[in-house]
Structures
1.
Amino acid sequence: MATNGPAIEVKELTKFFGNHHALDGIDLSVEPGKTLAVFGPNGAGKTTLIKILASIMKPSAGEVFINGLNLKDNAELVRARIGIVSHQIFLYSNLTAYENLLFYSRMYDIADYKQRIYQVVSMLGMQSRLYDRIGTLSRGMQQRFSIARCLLHKPSIILLDEPETGLDQYAISMLWDTLKEDGSQKLTTVFTSHHLERGLNTCDYLIILNRGKIAHQEPSKGLDLASLKAVYRNCTGAGGENTK
Amino acid sequence: MIVFAILVIVIFNFAFSGSQQTMVSLTPGMLWVTFAFAGVLSLNRAFIQEKEDNCLEGLMVCPVSRETIYLGKMLGSLFFMLLVEVVVLPVFALLFNVNVISLPLIIITILATLGFVTIGTLFSALAVNTKAREMVLPILFFPIVSPVIISAVSASGRVLGGESWGDIYSWLGIIAAFDIIFLVVAYLVFSVVIDE
């Protein structure tokens, strides 16, 4: 469903686990077709944010709107428009890649599922391993099939939680190329990363999370890597040892 | 599960001997101990694949409700438990020379199995995130499901004793009532369990 408003809108989003505030009153907005990079040290709340946007986790307070739909009231509709790639692949290790993709095709009620499976697998260059069990594949190959799973239902919004984990340089390039190429529509993307340089080159906007709060946000246009690293250090108090 | 259930029946066959009347009186207990043990094995596996492969979140991002996931898992467990029972009943009849394949007994078995898996699937989802899940599930689950098992044993005993439909209706009513309560509670609570 196309709307004139933002593709993703988050208002006063809060999530706490016991006394710990993983997210503390986050407000953000992502326009359709734009890419938002979320940076931050470990424990900043990046994964929690992605899990709430994907409706895996419920927020303690605040609201999330996806394409104008309140996530709380329209979770199933919203899920049909979202694809997620995490460092966990969400694939059954004792099934083949094809069986996994077939399973998810049925869950997403994809009409022409066989054609779509071959299409996404071809984009990722994994046709030759389609009938291998997921458990027998390398981490990088598993992650590529996870990307195929994410793209199967042609989502308009992609959520990526450190998607480059386990991928080699070629596979990382392929990941971003595939996300650009899939379909005529430009995808709205939110991704978390520790890799400041690649994140900066890929995103339209960026935010830096620290201790559950947005410590900094700005458009990436005109921002150079040295400035970003300086801002990151100021916001997080870290020396950037976990970032590149 | 099927091998385990048949093994239990074979062990019972060696353990108990006596007149035909004695065997008939022991049959309900032996049958439901076998079904309950095999059923717990099945329920222990209900979410284990999702746990081991971190696929539960994969299911949770699919455009289906949490309740649909519950119903799918519950029906899967029901299918496998009924499959075990379909195999076990003829083997039991053969080994013990007791007629356990009759319409009233089949109805009791289906109703009690339904109650067993409806609440068992919920407890399986609850136990899967604990460290000693194989132990936690029966400890949590058996006290809750015991009214269904006790009713099934009593009703089965009356059927095998040759009592009429009228005598087992009250037991069937109890089992059916627990089926409905368990189904409604599990259906409503599952999303809370899985989200936490």
Note: The helical segments of chain B are 2-15, 20-44, 48-52, 56-60, 66-96, 103-127, 133-160, 165-195.
2.
Amino acid sequence: MTVSASFRKKLRYFDVDISLECRSGKMMVLIGPSGGGKTTIIRMLAGLEKPDEGSLCFGNDIWFDSLRRINVKPQKRRLGYVFQDYNLFPHLNLFDNAAFAAADKKEVHALFELFRIDHLKKRKPHMVSGGERQRCAICQALARHPRLLLLDEPFSALDVVTRRGLREEIKSLKGKLSCPIIYVTHDINEALFLADEILPVVDGKADYGWMQRTITREPGEGTPTRGAREPRLSLVY
Amino acid sequence: MYVTLKLALVSTVVLMVLAAPISYFLAYTRFPGKSFIEALIYLPMALPPTVIGFYLIILMGPKGWIGSLWEKFTGGSLLFTFLGIAIASVIYSIPFAVQPMKAAFAKIDRRLLENAYILGLSKRATFLRVIIPNSFGGIAAAAILVFLHSIGAFGVLLMVGGSIPGETKVASIAIYEAVEMMNYRTAGLIALSFIPISYAFLLLINKLSDGPRA
């Protein structure tokens, strides 16, 4: 299955005008400076914001089409969405959070083991660390058997060590999933490490020169190429 | 005291059911004229109880549209009945239910609601499974305020229900009558019973609003 989108939306300081396409099992990373429209794009993919114009298809299903006035609700899109601030339900323990919309609770147990948080099932979100909350949020998203997985700067609130560990986990998870994955970050290292495809977004538009310009500002560093692995860059940390 | 507690309990239960959707509507929707509707809901808080009582007599009396409709279907009157004072108590206490509930609903992080939608929950299911459990403090505070306010109601109930023992004679009216008859001992005993009940409930409100979430 392929998710393909073409959106236009007027924002306060600029207009979002972007097209993207991502196939099952692939990860597309949206990268760019903060406030550049990445989160708006991912929210439009989720159905949490409505584009002014454009279309969004998942395989043969039309999720949004401004001309035909189609706008499928987020509830009907069967997505996994990992938010920047986890958004776990504070009144539920970690297991109940992850099992909130799960088709099969046994799978949630397996996911908790996979992400090594099975000893924290009974804890409430405020009783565990940011990294553990984020693992639980990923379990919550995966337990729904998402057709499309969206991750919006999932590690931005975490410390460098936890962040690197989770990055590895996401990378290994990518091989096990058969849905398209859209990942938002402003961290070039993260993008180069995880992405199958990179879409730099600046002021709501694709700007393929942005990475090059940003990286070459750093003296003594090489220029990464698309799909490069294990780059030696120290731009963000 | 039996009629008083029964009235407070009925008002609380009815208002919890009635105020929850109204509070949700006020907390999460925007529409022209919303402030007018909100002010109308809070109006009983600002009006003298006798003014509310007067309009309720007009509405629930034999010539009022609620009273005449009731009489047409049941053959009885709403005035000077327990049902009549229960309706009056609900209208009189509605702001005390809506205000804390609306504040509690509005305080919930919108991103939690978005996560619920992403996870496939309808707006109604989100209300029941996310908003209500995370607004427990506000809902409990609303219930306690309504209960206390109903216990203490006097003017509205006297106008709508009079003082029929076992039917509409609530504790505050009993105190008033005892004082009128210079029976200070009876008035003092009934009045004294209010203090521990009200104090205990206020302590509970404080505990609920100070306590940790979740």
Note: The longest strand of chain A covers residues 2-10.
3.
Amino acid sequence: MRWAILAALPIGLLLLALYPMVATGYGIQFMLQLFMWVALAQSWNLISGLTGYVSFGHVAFFGTGAYGAAILVSKHAWHWVPASLMGGVAAVVLALIIGYPCLRLKGPYFAIAMLGLNEVMRVLVSYFEGLTGGGSGLSLPTLHASRQVYYGMGLAALAITGVAHILITSRVGLRFMTIREDEIAAEAMGINTARYKLFAFLLSAFVPGVVGGLYARDQGYIEPISVFPLLTTVTMIVMALFGGKGTIWGPVLGAVTLFIFQELVWARFLYLHQVLFGAIIVVVVLLMPKGILGILQERYRLPRWV
Amino acid sequence: MNVAITPTMIGQVIISGLLAGALYSMVALGLALIYGVMRVINIAHGTLLMLGAYTTFWWFRLLGINPYLSLLVALPLMFLLGMLLQRTLVTRVVDAPELSSLLLTFGISIALVNVAQLAFTSDVRSVEFLTGAFLVGPFALSKSRLVSFAFAVVITVLAFWFLQKTKLGKAIRATSQSSEVAMVCGINVQRIHLYAFGIASALAAAGGSLVAVIVAIQPEMGTVYTFKSFLVIVLGGAGNYPGALLGGMLLGLVEQLSSLFLTTQVSEAVAYVLLVLVLLLRPTGLLGGRAR
Amino acid sequence: MKILAHVSRRGIGPWAAALAVAVGVGSWSPPAAAQAPIKIGASLSLTGTYAALGQNQQRGYQLCAKHMNEKGGVLGRKIEFVLYDDQSQPATGVRLYEKLITQDKVDVVMGPYSSAITEAVANVTEKYKMPMVAPMASTTSIFKKGRKFAFMVQSPAEVYLEGLLDVAAKRGLKTAAFVYEDTLFPKATVTAPGGSVDIAKKKGLQVVFVEAYPKGNTDFSAIMTKLRAANPDVLGAATYFDDAVAITRQMKELNVNPKMYGVTVGGDLPTFYQLLGKNAEYVYGATQWEAELPYPGAQEFLAAHSREFPGVVISYHSAGGYGGCQVLVEAIKRAGSLDGEKIREAILKIDMNTVYGAFKVDADGFQVSHKMVMFQWQEGKKVIVWPDELAAGKARFPTPPWNQR
């Protein structure tokens, strides 16, 4: 079993790397977006799944990265790869500004603070319109880079999953989970919870920022409402929950299954699709709090690194 | 291009702020009840408000009579819905980690908002009942806002009377302070949870009904009220019911004043900055609440 | 749950299979056919914020296809629209146009609803050199970016309030104020070069107040308070529908009484009057098209529309969709082929009238001859009051204060 999984991984990666050679433009778009969701769900998992601090405004980092990269590309003629990385940096800075005060408090307050964050970011983007184009949005110079963005997104998804693996199987990960289970006890044990929470938070903000930058490059045009929508946060959360928060492959599983279903079935019915998402969240929280992977882990006693 | 700000203008926006503030207070009181009694953060609060607003809309659309009378329907209806939600879903996460209740109410909110989209369509609705204003000197008092303000005040006063003077109200307050002690005193805490959620839903729905006469009604209208209610609670102090009143009025004033001195766009961010500041500097709220 | 348990026992295999399916779905394209219909691809906002408007546009496209086919089609072939729902989201639109062009292999495309979505998908159509006639995009910047394959049908955002300001200046008004929603189109209407602020200044009006409000804003009290203090003679609001209604109501609530008040998008919909009732009287609105206008084929279009879609009120979105489709068909005829470059050259040379009005674009694809009109709500009816050559009645001027109505 272990060998099967270990062998499947590089083969799967090879297939994914070769895919753009045979795919249509649509196919590349499809997979690129899939990678994006894997990266987002996994990032959400890092803060909310591991430490238990629910981030309702995580799309704010995505949007910040999108704008950061878009501004660098369109106004300062940066190449989109370093620009996207800077988008990640911008997101981390935002996380620092918000996280430093808000993580010192307990869970509910953090959640409340995150709840309004995406709206505030929208307002800020509109306010600094000289820089961001405000409500008119921002256009990047035309460049057809779908294939490269595909690889970029793929790498981002891979990287964050790798980070998740390292964290979850390490002592650091254990400390995160201790904070989640009983924060007061964690503090009593001498864990500097504020520092660990902040670390997880910053880490969880970087990849959405990068991915946002890649997204901006791919779309060629962004505006505040399209990069700060609540639906993005909801989708991230549903994917991570459904697959299994707090696990390594749970968010990947959740992202892949839900995205494929969504594209093939639900996307035609926008509101029904969202009702389903809401219902899934409720069902997962009440009946399968560890998600699909969590159930599998318990049933088949899978090791923690799956 | 901007105008010079005169005292009259300041006076006008203070009036607007107070009129809005009463509604915020009433709705936030509901949220405070849920948090105080059950320690559940009800992200679906604004969604309940939205359902109240639609009740009023359909009442007016189908019956054509005074939309304020729809309160007689909206309040009991949402009270029952609230109890149903509590009994079937929320009660399971009351003793679970906060993550669960946050996610659960979040999920409920998303589901209900989109059910509303399907049922009512995202067409914007409005209730055109009272338009125009009473002109009092240099000030214009919007008729609809004034009447809604009056109702909000009455309902809030009733709610407070209930909490202070009735047996059930006192039981609720006792449970807010400490559910263990309340249980020891013989209070059926499960039932208190049920009633608290029901009352809170009714308060949110009342907010929706009153607001339906003023603003546009659409399925996503509730989200902003959820956030504002949280803001009010943080300002007033968690679990501090009179604090919710003060917080609501304060929020109304801050919003209007910042829209006046800055722009309407920025006032959204101002509310948020206020939240972060209060969380940083005085997390127990301006009037002091539970230290958390 | 049971299915998943089954799956996991067999390991990764089924997941690879699912992945293969996804890959397969992504790579499959239908076989080409000889005398098959000409496929025109588009995504429309059939659900989401713009649903009502997107559906109107859809009817325009469908009706045009029907009529063209009745007349024998184009190049001896019928035309057929391949339409998807972009849910009023630019990102979805982008994906769908990729799909239409690379997978469904459509021959030509037409535009979606709204400037924002058009801007986003124009990147895709430009990439594949697929000419796109975009009937529902009014933002100049989309067509002034060096794109070769995007063609504008409507009058640009900047001139939406031109009628209002023209009448204001002619009637001797002195001061103007503008409010606008902070998104692409309304913002361009007011603040872009050649937009309302510039037009006002050129006509000798003094601009005393300008403020933007966020999309989705419902409380205009502070803005109204400032407006009352600024006391402009004419107020122009660059809006969509919800805000147009809210602003009108709150003007009454806070007693703001300009001598002329006009909105841009939304004021022309019958629901505007239905919701506001008497409070909508005297409001001016800008429109790209009205049913009464004497454009060729307009009456037949109206009759056909009410036959095909009984009970549905006609709007400029349908007319625009129809007119845009007319232009595309004409271009294909003139080009004699479906080659993108040839169609493009043909469109650049077209100077024609459709049911929607005049159509002629400059070298960038920017519309230069379509004219907007301004109407005023009078006794529950829209009366076209500007420009003079198309006016059906006189403007009721000045707008009386709220407490005198």
Note: Chain A touches chain B through 45 residues (CB under 8 Å).
